[in-house]
Amino acid sequence: MFLSLVFAASFQVVAELLPPEIGLGWTNGWVREWHREVPGLKVSDSSKELPNGLIRVVRRWTWEGTVPLKQVTLGVKYRVPGDSRRLKPFMPGILLYGNPSNRGRTDGRVPVFAGEKGEFAIFEEHRLPMPFALLEDSSTREFSAIHVLPSPIRGEEREDLWWSLGVEVVDGGTDIVMLSGPVGYNRRRSVVKARQRKAMVYDNAYITLYPGQVVEKTFWIQTGRAEDGSFGFEQALDISLDIFKPYDVTRYASMDEIVRSKRAFALSRWVEGPVQGACGFDMYDLRFEWRHLTLGWCGCAATCGYALPVLNLDPDDWVKAQRSLDFLCDVFTDTVETNGLFRVTFDMETGETYGADAAAHDKRRGDPVSCGQALYSILKAIRFAEKPEVKGRLNAVKWRRFAEKAADGMACDILRKDWKEPLSTGPGFMVAPLTVASEIFGKKRYLAAAKKLAAVFERRYFGYDEVYWGGTLDASCEDKEGAYAAFQGYVELLRHAVKVKDAAAERRYSRLARHSMNMMLTYTMVWDATYPPGRLSDHAFKSTGWTVVSAQNQHLDAFGVLTTPEIWWMGDYLKDDRLKKLASVMYRSCFQLTDSSGSLGEQIQQTNFAQQGGMSDVRKLRGGYAERWTVFWLTAHFLNAAAQFAEMGVDL
After folding, report:
1. Could you write out the DSSP letters of every residue in 331-356?
2. Least-confidence region, from 66-70, 105-109, 119-123, 436-440
3. For a disulfide at 288, which of 103, 111, 156, 284, Cβ 3.0-4.6 Å?
4. What three-state secondary structure class fits 280?
5. pLDDT value, residue 3
6. Above 80 in pLDDT, residue 316?
7. Pairing of strands 15-17, 69-81
8. What is d(CA 330, CA 314) in angstroms, rounded to the nearest whole number?
9. Residues facing 279 on adjacent strands
């Protein structure tokens, strides 16, 4: 029989699991009508309270009719009463407290949800890296979450049909809904977020029940109140980790194999001339027409100058590191502007330098994301070169000149009284290098600038009205790279506070580092999806440990590799071994799909989304793999993270 569950505890809001509803018929792209009962369709629930306070529920539908029941939609609804505008929805990787950076958007580029009448946001389960939907009251901080066991369901018109999960505004509150296929968002029914800038139609997402057929759906109900200094999504993240336990590293290549493969591929990108002295690591596959050394973001030309000597696999690696960083600093020092930003691309063919858009011959300075990331790599190289056991093997004179000039400009700009706050979290990538520069050069104003910038992010993002966003250059939305920009900076400030024994600063930055890390981790797959025939199923691809890019670009990529040293460090600092184990899985899992040369493509299509290749048929997107775009970050991040682990004395 149906189980009636009402959740009140000591909270003001009473949420409840609603009686079953069965959708019959399909008209104009949606369920024609809902019924509480359908003759011959038996619905029952079984539940169990778990030691961690969760309620595990299995809902079972049994069709006892003698003929097929067609155009059926099965549903589970969990109602949270209250002001829907205060009930902030959180769906990992897709809808982070409603995606406030894009509030008011009505097209399909980025999902949004403000709790207004008529709004809904319902997505395929395979789109969710952590499969839960949460509603959190921004006033009382009470929250309710539904965690699901993701599963496909046999469709009638769609072969690769999965259950969907989402939220929908109703009179007097908001429902968390699970449906046997139907999806939609931004007030459009039967569409999926399939392209970078738009949605695609996903109609006829109904099923047929055959005589004797049984369908079951497993889910967990979590309720609570956000603890002081934290948010409901963080407690839901903890539960998701405990449910799925994404910690098995035995399925993946060893760290030694990964490092050697990525080093070999990095060396295959080494280029020289024709400009005298020009050398370094090309951003693009050498078969491409461009020969660009590009700092930060996609190019990561400075990374090997730091990583190769630390990894110390061959004496010649030290020579290449020295030459590449010397050349980069020779070329770009004179491009540093008064605000510390600099051009980021050197064209090997013409000898010209460019800003963010080399293809357009942009002569302006680079962007804060690329400049911050590049400066951080160079500073780490300086710090390593000046270790007593290394001193004399590397000459950091040119590196120091470049880094000090850039840090001077960044700090002076940020500390100006008329400085304008950044629009997004992207400039957060300047916090970590400014903190490290303050230690290397002994200049307190660098640290003051880092703290001032970090304080902006604390005020704006430690709440519900804004979520870390704008950390990637090909999208404008909530993204893991924006969260990482803040996390990376907070971690360096936390390390500094620990080093100088500043207890107040340590408390402050540990809280902020934990919050930004947790937000970033919600983009991480904690379960293995299954796939239709295609590239991913060809390789028995395991999605655990990979990360969704952003609310706009909803494919998986290997960027999470770069974040693993800080995640591991936080696990050690917080005495949470789960974080250490997760960091190991993230690093090693993301080596999957790497070919024998060490090459890895950028876009893994775990859901109905693509950015490259044939994209006209939504049925042919999921399970694909775009491997042609192999910009250098896909190699550099593995080496960067490995070098940081080596300096920490950690072997994954």
Report:
1. HHGGG--TTS----EEETTT--EESS
2. 105-109
3. 284
4. strand
5. 57
6. yes
7. antiparallel
8. 25
9. 272
Is residue 7 within 8 Å of residue 143, measured between CB atoms? no
**Tokens standing for residue 190:** 């039967």
Candidates 496, 405, 481, 484; CA nearest to 450 is: 496
Rounded CA-CA distance 425/645 in Å is 26
Q: Is residue 561 a contact partner of residue 637, using CB atoms and an 8 Å limit?
A: yes
Strand partners, 223: 144
- 33 DSSP β-pair partners: 24
Q: To 10 degrees, what angle do helices 480-500 and 503-521 make? A: 160
Cα separation values, 573 from 291, 442, 454, 494, Å:
42, 26, 20, 10
Query: In which residue are the tokens 């900076």 written?
Result: 489
Q: Report the half-sphere exposure of 204 (CA within 13 A, side-chain side).
A: 9
Average pLDDT estimate for 101-106: 91
Q: Can you give the three-state secondary structure of 172-235, one letter per residue? A: CEEEEEEECCCCEECCEECEECCCCCCCEECCCCCEEECCCCEEEEEEEEEEEECCCCCCHHHH
For residue range 268-291, what is the model confidence (pLDDT) as tens digits? Answer: 999 998 888 899 999 998 888 889
C-alpha Rg value of the chain to the nearest Å: 25
* pLDDT per residue as tens digits for the range 148-184: 999 999 988 899 999 999 999 999 999 999 999 999 9
Buried b (16+ CB within 10 A) or exposed e, 384-393: bbeeeebeee
Whether the model clears a pTM of 0.85, i.e. scores above it, the answer is: yes
CA distance 75 to 380: 53
Cα dihedral 16→17→20→22 (10° resolution): 100
Q: What is the DSSP letter of 2?
A: P
Both structure tokens of 99: 């995606």
User: Residue 131 pLDDT > 70, yes or no?
Assistant: yes
- The whole-angstrom separation of Cα 474 and Cα 478 is 12
Give dist(CA 309, CA 196) in Å, integer: 38
Which tens digits make up the pLDDT trace of 465-486? 999 999 988 889 999 999 999 9
Cα angle value 286/399/263 (rounded, 5°): 35
CA–CA gap between residue 541 and residue 293 (Å, rounded): 32
Please say whether the beta carbons of 431 and 375 come within 8 A. Answer: no
What token pair was written down for 153?
Answer: 């369901």
Interatomic CA distance for residues 374 and 304, integer angstroms: 11
